[in-house]
Amino acid sequence: MTKKIFLDFEAPVAELEGKIEELRYVQNESAVDITAEIDQLSKKSQQLVKDIYSNLTPWQITKIARHAERPYTLDYINEIFTHFVELHGDRHFADDLSIVGGLARFNGAPCMVLGQQKGRDTKERGLRNFGMSKPEGYRKALRLMKLAEKFGLPVFTFVDTPGAYPGIDAEERGQSEAIGRNIFEMAQLEVPIITTIIGEGGSGGALAISVADQVVMLQYAIYSVISPEGCASILWKTADKAQDAADALGITALRLKALGLVDKIVNEPVGGAHRDHKQAAVFLKRALGEAYRQVSDLKVKELLDRRYDRLQSYGRFTDTKANAK
Questions:
Q1: Is 198 exposed, middle or buried (0-12, 13-18, 19+ CB in 10 A)?
Q2: Out of 81, 236, 283, 285, which could bridge 104 as a Cys pair, Cβ 3.0 to 4.6 Å?
Q3: Contacts of 111 (CB under 8 A, 6+ apart)
């Protein structure tokens, strides 16, 4: 059995669940029936998780969004979609494994699905570059989206990246151009686009596959122009102020929903999606079905006009001069 990974603020839960495991071991090795005690402690653990997760800070939510056991794109594809056939390569340079995608069926209907994929172990993390895509990854994503447009298929994208890869080789091959091109093309794509923020939605690396008609976001995901550490390094010259940056950035689902940047928040199982992958997928599948129904019957012009208006509505400002008059 894989050992659970607990975050620092989950220390009381870790201690309690450790005691539960010890009692289960004793139960197996002894003739004494302590089932009632185990059940009582399990209920106490569940309540403790509920209490902790009912009052989380943005920095704590950031840690949950990055949890090593959190479901990734392929986990959701396997649970929500059927008949998935992965497609590879950008037809220009290489196949970037940090983005996966291909043809699939959603509730029996054909679609295109793609998203960023982080690795589970050291080897896979290296292969997938920790979910940080290079230009060939974004060009692969665009190729798949244009293929979907050709055949009139809806596009489902899943965002989970710290940001686009900032290495020299990525810059040499036109990282900013690839991201800008995706944003430009997605704004004009003549098929419905549904985007889900499932973990980290970091900067342009997230935007490159998240221009959509409907954006849904998991309860403990984050979506931001820059990571809290990056923001702290710029403003305070130290990453130690990341917690303060997380508070100021407004990166949580509730804040983004209030600002109109996210259409729907998808609840996660008690204690986060990492505690129950299947239940998280059930919640998300229901939300994706609702999101798709809202745009599936729109004519192309109506779809594009609606998407344009949506993009133009981002951002709020107050004209202080006008108010002074």
A1: buried
A2: 81
A3: 81, 103, 104, 105, 148, 153, 154, 155, 156
Residue 294 belongs to some domain of the structure: yes
Instruction: Tell me, yes or no, whether 30 and 153 share the same domain.
Output: no
Q: pLDDT, tens digit, for every residue of 151-170? A: 999 999 999 999 999 999 99
Does 114 share its domain with 176? yes
Q: Which residues pair with 112 in a beta bridge?
A: 103, 155
Residue 197 tokens read as: 């923020």
CA distance 23 to 29: 10
C-alpha to C-alpha distance for 193 and 213, rounded to whole angstroms: 5
3-state secondary structure of 239: helix
**What number of residues does the chain have?**
325
The answer to whether residues 180 and 229 belong to one domain is yes
Give SS3 for 190.
coil
Inside any domain, residue 304: yes
Question: Does residue 218 sit within a domain?
Answer: yes
For 273-311, the pLDDT digits (tens) are 999 999 999 999 999 999 999 999 999 999 999 999 988
Range of the domain at 16: 8-55
252 DSSP 8-state letter: B
| Distance in angstroms (rounded) separating the CA atoms of residues 114 and 186 | 13
Verify that 74 and 91 share a domain, yes or no. yes
Task: Tell me, yes or no, whether 318 lies in a domain.
Answer: no
Distance CA 247, CA 249 (A): 6
If one counts every other C-beta atom within 10 angstroms of the C-beta of residue 166, the result is 12
- Residues 203 and 254: their CA atoms lie apart, in Å, by 18
How far, rounded to the nearest angstrom, does the alpha carbon of residue 233 sit from its chain's CA centroid? 24
- CB distance 142 to 187 below 8 Å: no
Taking 70 as the pLDDT cut, the residues of the chain under it are: 1-3, 27-33, 316-317, 321-325
Whether 33 and 168 map to the same domain: the answer is: no
